[in-house]
Every structure is written in structure tokens, then in C-alpha cells.
Amino acid sequence: MGAESRCRELLRIDCSARLGEIAGSLGVRNMLKKGSADRELLDVNDMEAEIAAVFQGEAINRHIRVETRFDRSLPVVMASKTQLQQVLLN
Known about the structure:
The chain is mainly alpha-helical. Helices cover 57% and strands 9% of the residues. The protein has a two-stranded antiparallel ribbon with strand order 1-2.
């Protein structure tokens, strides 16, 4: 395995571990608990901005520039916040 391939593999493993930590901090694991699928009106743009903010520190540490563009014309949706967070994380 070449040095570049090794670096990519280490980065993939590190990113996977970090995503697990972030998912835990956002409460994704709570989705598995009974009764946690409570639905509410949510703004997808706000949810995406929230998730981008969580990743911002990691992006800065890795010298990664993140650009976001939100469509403010999107309607709010009736959904489980935890489940929507998981979809957006994926």
C-alpha cells in the first residue's frame, strides 16, 4: 500500500470515528428508542446549518473550506428532528 493510499485510509477511519461522535452528540442514537419519533415542523435549511456548524471546527482543523447554499424558498416539513438529522448527516 502506497503512502497516499495509507493516508486516505487513515483519514477515512478518522472521519468515520468522528461521524460516530457527532451522531452521538446530535442524539441520533435516541432515534432507536421507543417514542423518539415525535414529529414537528422543521426548517431543513436551519437543520443543515446546524449540522454544518458542528462540522465547522473539524473542517478548520483539516484546512477544508466548506461552502453552504440554502434555498430559503423550501417549505418547512413535518418530521422527526432526530431522523432528519440522520438523513442530513448521511
